Amino acid sequence: MRYWLYKSEPATWSWDQQKQKGASGEEWTGVRNYQARNFMREMKRGDRGFFYHSNEGKAVVGIVEVVKEAHADSTADDPKWECVDIRAVMDVPEPVTLDRIKAEPALTDMVLVNNSRLSVQPVTEEEFAHVCAMGGVDPQSAMKG
DNA sequence: GCCAACGTTGGC
DNA sequence: GCCAACGTTGGC
């Protein structure tokens, strides 16, 4: 299993909206960047990830899971743009802000810190567990379901 | 609201 | 195929 991070501006698509989609989840549409698309092509059903609020909030606010692997993005006119479907798994009780992540020596290599513009990005298992712990989430339950 | 970083586009 | 111009993202 691999781990990921999905960025969204809460004004466009928020964690609350994601949660309202329930267990069937929702397409992660709108990615028009090859690097981000290629990461989504690598995703497998069951992969876990972070839901990150960019711009406003700037924090990891939730845990999500891939429920449908890459397929054509229904909002794109070109089928080369693909997306996965993800569902909300659980809240992060203490949202882990970008400031806290940057201040954490174990997380200096996170893509979030080093490539702030990439909207879908990989997270290592160690980083995932670390951020879970910082957010008050039991890493075991976040990583296993 | 500004602007740095980065990706994409298009002229040559 | 290079690279300047432009657009977008997202932190500040």
Automatic annotation (TrEMBL):
This is EVE domain-containing protein. Residues 2-134 form the EVE domain. It comes from Jiella sonneratiae. InterPro entries: 5hmC_binding (IPR052181), EVE_domain (IPR002740), PUA-like_sf (IPR015947), THYN1-like_EVE (IPR047197). Transmembrane segments: none annotated. CDD domains: EVE. PANTHER family: THYMOCYTE NUCLEAR PROTEIN 1 (PTHR14087).
